[in-house]
Write the structure tokens for this entry.
Amino acid sequence: MTVLLTRRSMVGRALAIGSTSLLTACNFDDLQHPDLADRVLRVMSRWNDRVQEALFDPTRLAPTYPASAITRPPRFNAYYDISDVRVVDGNAWRLDLFGAISEKRAWRLEDLRTLPQESQITRLICVEGWRVVGQWRGVPLGDFLRRIGADTRARYVAFRCADGYHSSIDMASALHPQTILALDFLDAPLTPAFGFPLRLRIPTKLGFKNPKSLTALGVTNEYPGGYWEDQGYNWFSGS
């Protein structure tokens, strides 16, 4: 048995034991109390996050697909209806940088398009259970972080969006070779519904960890949370 399998087995067993101990600490009547039930679920969610982070392999790639597998028509997803999509002025748009970054100048859309880019056909999995396959092209986030002098020893990369959405990921996931700042979708520039002018595409996490219409990117050691994460969704949320 390899070290990796042993580690995963041990962590998985710890998860099962930890979850069981949390549940047995409360009887059924206790869990009818909303505040206590909420606290128990949040503790379990944080436990799940730690286990997922421990199991994450920064060298393991998410599955890729042939062009014939692309979902058509593509499926819109957001925390609002498609009629409420925020339209961003690409000429005025800037990507602001904050936190543990040495070169904090704002980036224009045309500046990002001059950088080396990579394309991928990968699957997006929604926390609701549905999944779609799409084609994205953009700048590898790890390359961009190194270019701007980000402290890649920091714990988190945070994102802010034009529509008020925000999210964050761990640094290991940010540096994963398939994590990109996407500029194109289906061989064309992103449309407003799919995140124009720039979105995070990270196929190793669930769909809500792929924020659209980015306006700011930061590097920090302070937990940044996120729109859904602050409402109880698992923060790590590996797919």
Observations:
- The domain at 67-231 is CATH 3.90.420.10 (Sulfite Oxidase; Chain A, domain 2).
- Residues 208 and 228 are 8 Å apart (CA to CA).
